[in-house]
Design brief:
Distance between the termini: 59 Å
Radius of gyration: 19 Å
Strand content: 5-15%
Number of strands: 3
Largest sheet: 3 strands, mixed
Order of helices and strands: EEHHEHHHHHHH
Structural class: mainly alpha
Length: about 160
């Protein structure tokens, strides 16, 4: 029985990992379960590039037998106060890779990684104005001043504390 699986990224990079590591992804777990047990499956990962898949697998290799603590929702303080040292170091990445990890974790159905990366974004935007958030993520404001004022008025309850 093969204990390894090959994962082939969108840019044709192949990563060989233990099946147990790959099974942190619900998508991979289902595909591995359907594969013949006497051969090493090769699973294409068309929506994830090699560098992003490598970073995803770094997380999975650490946490497959050492599950991450659940992150409180909503996040009340700083993310750094509620995650492990490994996860703190893991999140020392640029913003574009963080967004790619969120997309990959969602596509591959890796709940713990999705929770971690989304909590990082939540921590980044906490206390910021909409304009600061737009600037941080390079989002164009396509609302007219009138539309923006209407939205603020409709959602004023969110800002009341």
């Amino acid at each position: 029985m093969a204990e390894l699986v090959d994962l082939k990224s969108s840019d044709e990079q192949v990563f060989t990992v233990k099946k147990e590591v790959a099974k942190m992804s619900e998508v991979f777990a289902d595909l591995i379960a359907d594969a013949p047990s006497d051969e090493k499956p090769q699973i294409p990962v068309p929506n994830v590039s090699g560098p992003v898949l490598k970073k995803v697998l770094e997380y999975c290799e650490h946490h497959w037998n050492n599950r991450a603590e659940e992150i409180e929702k909503p996040l009340k303080g700083k993310i750094e106060d509620v995650i492990s040292d490994f996860d703190k170091k893991y999140l020392e990445i640029d913003q574009s890779l963080l967004i790619e990890l969120i997309l990959a974790a969602n596509f591959l159905n890796i709940k713990d990684l999705l929770d971690l990366t989304c909590a990082k974004v939540a921590s980044m935007i906490k206390g910021k104005t909409p304009e600061e958030i737009r600037q941080m993520f390079g989002i164009e404001n396509d609302f007219t001043p009138e539309e923006e004022e209407k939205i603020r008025e409709e959602n004023r309850w969110c800002e009341e504390n």
